[in-house]
Write a structure and sequence with these properties.
CATH class of the largest domain: Alpha Beta
Strand order of the largest sheet: 9-7-5-2-10-1-11-15-19-20
Radius of gyration: 21 Å
Number of strands: 20
Structural class: alpha/beta
CATH topology of the largest domain: Adenylosuccinate Synthetase, Chain A, domain 3
Number of helices: 12
Distance between the termini: 5 Å
Bound molecules: guanosine-5'-diphosphate, 6-O-phosphoryl inosine monophosphate, magnesium ion
Strand content: 15-25%
Shape: globular
CATH superfamily of the largest domain: Adenylosuccinate Synthetase, subunit A, domain 3
Helix content: 25-40%
C-alpha cells in the first residue's frame, strides 16, 4: 500500500474536499501541507454539509489531522473553525489534530495589507481572498514571520513583532491604511497561545513514526496547479506551491512519502478571481454551468467564472504537478447538454500552441482551439458504477483521458460522499 497526495488540476474548487473525505476512509492520517484559510472544501455527508478551510478533511471521518509547516495559519480563523465544526458534532482535540510547531502564523496585519494592496491595484487586482495569505508567505521567505512555536516564547515574540511592525507599518502608512500597535498584537497573541499550543508539535516526527509503522498517509492539497506560484497563471496565482512535491517540503517528509498523486479536475472548468481563462464562457452556457454546478466560492461567496473543460491546461497540470491519475468530478453538471466542447490547445497571435505559454500577454490573448463532442440525454447524477453511465458520457471521459495523457481513475457524480465511481484504488500498490 502506498500513500496518496491529492492536488487540484485546474484553478481550485474541483471537489478536493469531497474526494479527500471519500478516500480518508482508507487512510490513517490526513495532512494539509500548503495554503491557508483561502481554501474552502465542502463535504456533504447525508444531511450534513461541512465547510472546511484549515482543518484537514479527514477529520470528518475521525482520522488524525495534521496541519504541516507549509500551511499559513490564522489562529483566530482556526479556533473559529474548530468551534464551528465542534458545534456540528465533530471531535477536534489535541488527540485528533496536530499542528506543525514551525508553521507560519497569519496576523490581522496580513489581511489588512492584502486588502490595501488589492485596492491600490484597482483594475489590475488579483482578486485574492483578502485573507492575508500572500503577505504571510512573503514574511516567511523574508525571514521575519511569527511561527507557532514563537507563541511559547513571549520574549522572542516581542522582539519579532518589533521587526515585523517596522516593515509593515511603514507599508500600511504608505498605502493610507491604519497601522498596528505592538502591545495590542502581543497581548492578543499571548491570549491565543494557550488554545493553540496544545496542538503544536514537530509533526515531522509523528509522520516518520507513522511511516515506519506502515500507516497510510493522505496529503490534502489546497488550491490547484494553475494557481501555483511557479507553474500557474502568474501573477494571478496564490502565494504557495500547490504541486505534489510540496507535500514533502510542506510537512517534513521525503519526496518518496508523497506516494501516488491524484489530480482533481471538474468535467468543465471554473475560476474565482482575476486572470486568464481561455475556455471561459460569457454566454448562456456559462451561466447554465454556474447555475447547475452551484458555482459560488466557499470562502468569499463570489460567483465562479465557468467554461468548457480545457484538456491542454489539465495536460500541462498533469506534467508539472506530477499527477499519476485524475479524479473527474461534477460529470452530472454536464447532463442534458446537446453538445460539449473541449479545449485542446490555443491560438495566440496567429500561432497555435499545445500548452499555455508563460507570458502574461500571451496568456491573456490565448484563444481556445476546440473539439466538439455529442452530449448525452440520460443522467449521470448519483451514478455509482461505470455501467450506470450513458454511453456518450463514457466516451467523453475516455476522450479526456487521451487528451490529458493520464488515466481517469475516479469519477464523482454528485456532492454526496458515496456518489463516486472508483476505477483504480490510488492506495493500491
Ligand atoms: P475544493 O475546494 O476542491 O474542495 O472544492 P469546493 O468544495 O470548494 O467546491 C466543489 C463544490 O462542488 C462543492 O460544493 C461540492 O459539494 C461540489 N461537488 C463535488 N463533487 C461534485 C460532483 O461530482 N457533482 C456535483 N454536482 N457537485 C460536486
Ligand atoms: P480551494 O482549496 C479557488 C484564488 C483567489 C485569487 C488567487 C489568490 O478551495 O480550491 P489568495 O487569497 O490565495 O492570495 O488569492 O487564488 N484562490 C482560490 N480559488 N479555490 C481556492 O482554494 C483558492 N484559494 C485561492 O480567488 O484568484
Ligand atoms: Mg474550494
Amino acid at each position: 500500500m502506498t500513500n496518496v497526495t491529492i492536488i487540484g488540476a485546474q484553478w481550485g474548487d474541483e471537489g478536493k474536499g469531497k474526494v479527500v473525505d471519500w478516500l480518508a476512509s482508507r487512510a490513517d492520517i490526513v495532512v494539509r501541507f500548503q495554503g491557508g484559510h483561502n481554501a474552502g472544501h465542502t463535504l456533504v455527508v447525508g444531511n450534513e454539509t461541512y465547510k472546511l478551510s484549515l482543518l484537514p478533511s479527514g477529520l470528518v471521518r475521525g482520522k488524525l489531522g495534521i496541519i504541516g509547516n507549509g500551511v499559513v495559519i490564522d489562529p483566530v480563523a482556526l479556533l473559529a473553525e474548530i468551534d464551528r465544526v465542534t458545534a456540528q458534532g465533530l471531535l477536534v482535540s489535541p488527540e485528533t489534530l496536530r499542528i506543525a510547531d514551525n508553521a507560519i502564523l497569519i496576523l490581522p496585519l496580513h489581511a489588512a495589507i492584502d486588502s490595501a494592496r488589492e485596492a491600490a491595484r484597482g483594475e489590475r487586482k488579483i482578486g485574492t481572498t483578502g485573507r492575508g495569505i500572500g503577505p504571510a508567505y512573503e514574511d516567511k521567505v523574508a525571514r521575519r514571520a511569527i511561527r507557532v512555536c514563537d507563541l511559547a516564547e513571549p520574549e522572542t515574540l516581542a522582539a519579532k513583532l518589533d521587526e515585523l511592525l517596522l516593515h509593515h507599518n511603514t507599508l500600511l502608512a504608505g498605502l493610507g491604511a491604519p497601522i498596528f500597535n505592538k502591545q495590542d498584537l502581543l497581548a492578543s497573541l499571548l491570549a491565543l497561545a494557550p488554545r493553540i499550543l496544545p496542538y503544536a508539535e514537530p509533526v515531522w516526527e509523528r509522520l516518520a513514526i507513522a511511516k515506519r509503522a506502515g500507516e497510510r498517509i493522505l496529503f490534502e492539497g489546497a488550491q490547484a496547479v494553475m494557481l501555483d506560484v511557479d507553474h500557474g497563471t502568474y501573477p494571478f496565482v496564490t502565494s504557495s506551491n500547490t504541486v505534489a512535491g510540496t507535500a514533502a517540503s510542506g510537512s517534513g517528509v521525503g519526496p518518496g512519502t508523497v506516494g501516488r498523486v491524484l489530480g482533481i479536475a471538474k468535467a468543465y472548468c471554473t475560476r474565482v478571481g482575476s486572470g486568464p481563462f481561455p475556455t471561459e464562457l460569457h454566454d448562456e452556457t456559462g451561466r447554465l454551468l454556474g447555475e447547475r454546478g452551484h458555482e459560488f466560492g466557499t470562502v468569499t461567496g463570489r460567483k465562479r467564472r465557468c467554461g468548457w473543460f480545457d484538456a491542454a491546461l489539465v495536460r500541462q497540470a498533469v506534467k508539472v504537478g506530477g499527477i499519476d491519475g485524475i479524479a473527474l468530478t461534477k460529470l452530472d453538471v454536464l447532463d442534458g447538454f446537446a453538445e460539449l466542447k473541449i479545449g485542446v490547445g490555443y491560438l495566440i497571435n496567429g500561432k497555435s500552441y499545445k500548452h499555455l505559454p508563460a507570458g502574461m500577454a500571451a496568456q491573456a490573448a490565448a484563444m481556445p482551439i476546440y473539439e466538439t463532442l455529442e452530449g448525452w440525454s440520460g443522467s449521470t447524477r448519483g451514478a455509482r458504477t461505470w455501467a450506470d453511465l450513458p454511453a456518450q458520457a463514457i466516451k467523453y471521459v475516455k476522450h479526456i483521458e487521451e487528451l490529458i495523457e493520464a488515466p481517469v481513475t475516479l469519477l464523482s457524480t454528485s456532492p454526496e460522499r458515496d456518489d463516486t465511481i472508483l476505477m483504480q484504488d490510488p492506495f493500491a500498490d
